[in-house]
Design a protein that fits this description.
globular; mainly alpha
């Protein structure tokens, strides 16, 4: 793998040799590691990275924040390339819903069959379908979600059946935000989105209720908005090793001051700055290897299915330690993620593109999402 001098984020996003799919996959693996330690039957607790980052954040939330940064960049790019509400909605639905439906069904069915007292009969019960329909509909993007859409009574002891899904309906709300800002544009689109992203970032810091009434995890809101802002600057913005190293150096200096004065050695701003800079550097880098992983995005399927797999393994094999649970979970989740990408997610996106292309008005140029 060879790295060349940094190119602009716009050039990187348009190229097929960028590392953004690898960044997403690394983020998903970080979430899996964090959950393996939390859910381990033997000595559950924090993973080594989370112990270092406490009490500011943990590995799982940090990796989700990286997802939101990358998502903010590419969702904004999609709108800027084709600012049409219906086409935007179709593309977003085609990306998020087919894989979600497949993974919710593939993980719920065995959980109900093998880890509940009703067994096969439970597949036709109201609680099962409340859970399934609530999750595949992103809970209707409601703010407050009933417990019946997080768990199924009597299945795996009534535990939350998939602790990863809480981020998806916040992601859905971010899509709505981009669309609302886009259709309300009162300036040329790039300047408008740049200004509104910066304004909302400032508002979220000065008036937390602004974000709190829309998405309760303000850190994810801020990372998505940072991704939006980066997208509007992408034609000139270059993030390379110098920028990433500078961000990490700032964090290191902050660490020494915090450790000396209070013992709370990190701040969320510093951690997010360093993680974001490294993610954008790795994503925009021109990579010469890893061709298969660069062209195929297995992160979404892995993110969706690993938690219920861990719960079922934990119940079936209560003697597992964290690293054993991690290894077995990846052994089962990785093939499911690959199948989901090749047979559900990628075909769904291609089908949506063909459908949209067939309905595009004559003379209007086709633009990629």
């Amino acid at each position: 793998m060879t790295l060349v001098p940094p190119r602009t984020l716009a050039d990187a996003a348009a190229a097929r040799d960028n590392g953004f799919n690898l960044v997403r996959l690394a983020a998903a693996l970080g979430v899996v590691v964090h959950h393996a330690y939390l859910l381990a039957p033997v000595s559950p607790g924090d993973d080594p990275v989370s112990r270092l980052l406490k009490p500011v954040t943990n590995l799982g939330l940090l990796m989700v924040a990286v997802f939101f940064l990358i998502s903010g960049f590419f969702i904004t790019r999609s709108w800027m390339h084709d600012p049409h509400l219906l086409r935007f909605a179709v593309r977003r639905a085609a990306r998020i819903l087919p894989g979600l439906i497949a993974m919710v069904l593939l993980t719920t069915v065995p959980a109900v069959l093998w880890f509940s007292s009703p067994g096969a009969g439970g597949l036709f019960s109201l609680p099962t379908w409340q859970y399934i329909l609530g999750n595949v509909s992103l809970h209707g993007l409601r703010y407050a979600i009933p417990d019946t859409e997080w768990q199924i009574a009597g299945v795996l002891g009534g535990q939350s059946l998939n602790g990863s899904l809480w981020t998806l309906y916040w992601e859905g709300r971010m899509y709505v935000m981009v669309a609302l800002l886009g259709v309300a544009a009162a300036l040329p689109l790039r300047q408008w989105l740049m200004g509104t992203a910066a304004f909302l970032l400032l508002a979220a810091s000065l008036f937390p209720d602004v974000a709190g009434n829309y998405i309760w995890e303000q850190r994810l809101w801020s990372m998505f908005l940072a991704g939006m802002l980066c997208c509007t600057l992408a034609a000139r913005l270059r993030i390379g090793p110098v920028q990433a190293a500078s961000a990490c150096t700032l964090v290191a200096l902050n660490f020494t001051r915090g450790a000396d004065q209070a013992g709370n050695s990190f701040t969320w701003f510093g951690i997010a700055l360093a993680a974001g800079a490294v993610a954008l550097w790795a994503g925009s880098a021109q990579l010469r290897g890893w061709r298969h992983l660069r062209h195929h995005d297995y992160s979404y399927g892995l993110y969706l299915c690993h938690w219920p797999i861990m719960l079922m393994l934990k119940t079936a094999l209560p003697q597992l330690a964290a690293l054993q649970l991690l290894a077995l979970s990846l052994l089962l989740a990785a093939p499911l993620a690959m199948l989901s990408w090749h047979y559900v997610e990628a075909p769904a996106m291609k089908m949506a593109q063909r459908w949209l292309a067939a309905r595009r008005p004559a003379g209007e140029s086709a633009l990629r999402a």
